[in-house]
Amino acid sequence: MTALALAASASLAMPTAVAAPAPAPAAVPNSVPMVPEGVPVDAIAALTPAIVGAIAGPADIAEGPQAGILAQARTLLATLNLPPQIKATLERIITFLDGSGGGGPDLPEDGPAIAQFLYPTIGKGCIGDSSDSVGTALAVPGPAQLPPPGPAAGQTGFVFTALGTKSPTPVQNPPMTVQWLNLDTRQSGVVPLTDEAKINPDGPATLSAIVDTGRGRIVAVVGGSLTTQAPDAAPRTCSFLPTLGFFTVA
């Protein structure tokens, strides 16, 4: 297993109940870190519709595409009785979205710098009929060597790993996707994740993509379906709920 895949699969947790431990690799500056272990993440996951709506919506909104996400985050913070760790995460998301968290960072010289998504996600029946998989997502702002062939400056590599699963099939239909939005340039897109990089050819299934996100603050959602196949077995398809990432490409 590669170092990048090990980073992607560093932690295990049930995403609808608790978040995973923080990973060992260096985090990207001006990113929102993972939720601490043992903390319910439902309030953070509730931001998903607002983020997807901002990605799909018009780019010429006067107050910026992040306005709806900001409003939702502020409402959650003001109205729910949240654990202190979730309050801190929402506050960090708000400062990331409104720009008060600072500008673009200088990336570390030794890499890759990795931005873990906020929490792992579950795939029901991905390993067996009664065996679920925990999926983790991460982003690697360029320039970096991983995931292959390596994101260049202004690009982001996205990696999703489904722990305990077999090799992915060559064709993923329906696919796992990353939906992304650059808050500073208002560019956005939806890109399928594939196994073209062959990060873990023998499993666990690891899908990736290199995306022209441009430089700026990026909001991303990874979710969708995964199809794997063991030797002499029929393909198995399962679905993973979305997980969220907030990071900066310098």
Total strand count, please? 9
Helix content: 10-25%
Spatial extent as radius of gyration: 17 Å
What series of H and E elements makes up the topology? HHHHHEEEEEEEEE
Shape: globular
How many H/I helical runs? 5
**Major pleated sheet:** 5 strands, antiparallel
How widely separated are the two ends? Answer: 28 Å
Poorly predicted regions: 1-25, 103-108
Overall tally of domains: 1
User: How much of the sequence is in beta strands?
Assistant: 25-35%
What is the average of the pLDDT values? 84
Category by helix and strand content: alpha+beta
Describe this structure in words.
- With 250 residues, the chain is an alpha+beta fold.
- The chain has one domain.
- It contains 5 helices and 9 strands.
- The strands form 2 sheets. Strands 1, 2, 3, 4 and 7 form a 5-stranded antiparallel sheet that branches. Strands 6-5-8-9 form a 4-stranded antiparallel sheet, covered by helices on one side.
- 46% of the residues are buried.
Concise overview:
The chain is α+β, with helices and mostly antiparallel strands and 250 residues long. The protein has helices spanning 3-8, 42-45, 48-56, 67-79, 84-98, and strands at residues 115-116, 121-128, 131-141, 156-162, 176-182, 188-193, 206-211, 216-228, 236-249. It has one domain.
Search tags:
250 residues, alpha+beta, five-stranded antiparallel sheet, four-stranded antiparallel sheet, 5 helices, 30% strand, disordered N terminus
